């Protein structure tokens, strides 16, 4: 279980991407007061947590209703997470075109909560990592706890965004994002390999 939680932590850290989020947060809230930045960070994390927890709770039911097997989602999710990792490695912004938000929208909701924190990759990851058919409820709760810890780290990063950027610099931030991208790409391949093994077992059992 410890190995699974460590893997889950790496996947969730890479897909939620606290380092990338702090850079976006710093650019969006540079003109705000400290109190306004704090309120924005709290709202963004609250919205993102609600979305991700919602995916944990109802994601499996939606898949069942649509007749999609989780192993199929695991293959698709692994491929998407691999592409997600490649974007991080090659420096393509994961929220390109969204960094400035839109007039009339609360930046805590868009682009911070979605798609900067509750990214498509994170949504896919939490559904796969909390599969009802594979993991008992206590493991699912533990994975959800890991997700909340990553969100808490993201919140702390946002509150300290200005200080962190000054310490590690934009180059340091870019290096961290690329390292996490490489780890995510490797972990996503593991997800696909696991799913292919399951497909092989299913095919063998039906023969």
Automatic annotation (TrEMBL):
Membrane topology category: Multi-pass membrane protein
Family per record: Belongs to the UPF0056 (MarC) family.
Transmembrane parts of this sequence: 12-32, 44-62, 68-86, 107-129, 141-163, 175-199
Descriptive protein name: UPF0056 membrane protein
Main location: membrane
Signal peptide segment: none
Top-level taxonomic group: Bacteria
Alphabetically ordered keywords of this record: Cell membrane, Membrane, Transmembrane, Transmembrane helix
Subcellular location: Cell membrane
GO cellular component: a single term: plasma membrane
């Amino acid at each position: 279980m410890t190995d699974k939680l460590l893997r889950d932590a790496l996947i969730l850290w890479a897909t939620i991407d606290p380092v990338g989020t702090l850079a976006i947060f710093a650019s969006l809230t540079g003109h705000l007061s400290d109190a306004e930045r704090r309120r924005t960070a709290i709202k963004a994390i609250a919205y993102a947590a609600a979305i991700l927890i919602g995916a944990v709770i109802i994601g499996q039911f939606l898949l069942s209703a649509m007749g999609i097997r989780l192993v199929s989602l695991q293959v698709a999710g692994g491929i998407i997470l691999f592409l997600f990792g490649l974007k991080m490695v090659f420096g393509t912004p994961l929220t390109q075109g969204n960094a400035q938000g839109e007039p009339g929208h609360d930046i805590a909701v868009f682009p911070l909560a979605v798609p900067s924190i509750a990214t498509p990759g994170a949504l896919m990851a939490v559904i796969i990592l909390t599969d009802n058919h594979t993991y008992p409820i206590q493991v699912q709760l533990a994975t959800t706890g890991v997700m909340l810890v990553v969100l808490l780290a993201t919140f702390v990063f946002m509150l300290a965004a200005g200080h962190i950027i000054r310490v590690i610099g934009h180059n340091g931030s870019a290096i961290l994002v690329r390292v996490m991208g490489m780890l995510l790409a490797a972990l996503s391949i593991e997800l696909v390999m696991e799913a292919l093994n399951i497909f092989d077992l299913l095919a063998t059992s039906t023969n």
